[in-house]
Amino acid sequence: MNSPDTHLQQACTRPAHCSEEEWALRCDLAHCYHLIDYMGWTETIFNHISARLPGPAHHYLVNPFGLNYTEVTPANLLKIDLEGHKIEPSPYDGNPAGFALHAALHEARDDVRCIIHTHTTPVSAIAQKSAGFDYNNFYGAQLYGRVGYHAFEGITLFDEEKPRMVASLGDKHILVLRNHGIAVAESSIAKTFFLLWTVQRAAEIQCAGAALPGPDTQLPNDIREKCADLTAMLIRDSGFADKFFSAMIRKMHADKGPSW
């Protein structure tokens, strides 16, 4: 049996067959899994985060099914093709419920390089409401015009649902899976994590506001659009999301120690 020190060394050492670019992606994705746990957004061993690898084959990295998010390392992430087959040997398998969602979006959207799927209580509560997000709080306004909605068809296991999920997302980056949860998709891991944080805060505040008496103050659509456009511009044209992601990793490590 390997010692804890051996496990740590294996988790931190780039294998000879793995390119530096892929290893950097693996490290970022593993950190993202640990951050989702740190923020309290996990659903035990369920849900999934994927990152597309460079190249035309649309291969992507995803968590080994059965591991806690805190047990994910750069080395044990699975490399998967669009059919859910492992590209490299691993003692672990993936979660079949994630293949349809991730494969569909990675194949259809070349601008999407990371997808995060969660079931947090506030997000799932919004997902079951017919009105969805109301865009009336500071974070909700930043989502205006950026959210697609997909009708619940049961657990996402089947290829036949893929084109409908793609159509529901359209050219947007947030997909509310009605009566279920959410998937957010962006052009990098850092941008996807920041978008998820924004969505989570919007859902938390909307749920808290709904519990208070009295009507909400409605924001006009032009203000919502201004907020959403500005946030999208900051994410697209600056290192805003990268700074946020790095800061959260530092905070997590300061509180809990190294991830692996």
TrEMBL record:
InterPro entries xref list: Aldolase-II_Adducin_sf, Aldolase_II/adducin_N, Aldolase_II/adducin_N_sf
Taxonomic superkingdom: Bacteria
Organism: Mesopusillimonas faecipullorum
Protein name (record): Class II aldolase/adducin family protein
Family membership noted in the UniProt record: Belongs to the aldolase class II family.
Matches recorded under SUPFAM superfamilies: AraD/HMP-PK domain-like (SSF53639)
Annotated ranges, domain Class II aldolase/adducin N-terminal: 27-207
